[in-house]
Amino acid sequence: MRISNKKIKIAWYGKHFGEEPPLVGSNDQGAGTIFFSGCNLHCVFCQNFQISQEDMGKEYNIEEVANIMLGLQAQGAVNIDLVTPTIWWRLLKEAIIIAKNKGLKIPIAWNSNGYEMANITEKMRELVDIYLPDFKYGDDDIAKKYSGIPKYSEVALRAIKNMISAVGLLKVEDGIAKSGVIIRHMILPNNLENTFLALEKIASINKNVHLSLMSQYCPVYNANNFSELNRPINKEELEKAEAKRFELGLDNGWTQELESGEIFLPDFTKTNPF
What we know:
9 helices, TIM Barrel, alpha/beta, 10 strands
């Protein structure tokens, strides 16, 4: 992934309604979502593979990115939802500061894969209000197999602890998230032990954290190269995962229903803004 000097690559931005309820509000509010190109993981089942792995997008300078944020606020978005921002964090820090100095008031949400450098949260302190980390893997061997990275759970757990330390648990006012952490975990088919281990590790951090347990997995990108991943999850897998979360005391948050487990993503090939 080539990162140009003082340019940030964006695949899509706009009002988005596919996030958890307190992140999208009601009626036509929505999250002010910006999908960034590139990713520091290489997940074989990536649902955003056109932008994360195939480098689709357009470059914007820092001032333009700040103006995109302000434009989304003007459209009534309830937050600025930065999706896969990690590799761009240094430039995004500058863009957020510019936007805030020009009148950005709504919360900044950092929507990442959880595999963050230890110092990012500290560098973004006072700038990011909401963290939405994935916790994809409890099993590091599975992480290496499917995402090509080492020590996933160790790195992600440390990052999530730092996030909770920085912004606390989720705070919602009038149905809208204002600050705090939501941890996401997507169930993979034929990998319940990974899910159980992931939930145990989340519970070890803080049982009061809000958890979004996701059923929307579908075999896209290179998932068909792995026979165990080449189907959606089933009702039994979802029910066992949900039972485990409650057994562990992870009562706050949401479980995505299987029948509504569609992927709420923009069509990057047709609706990009440039």
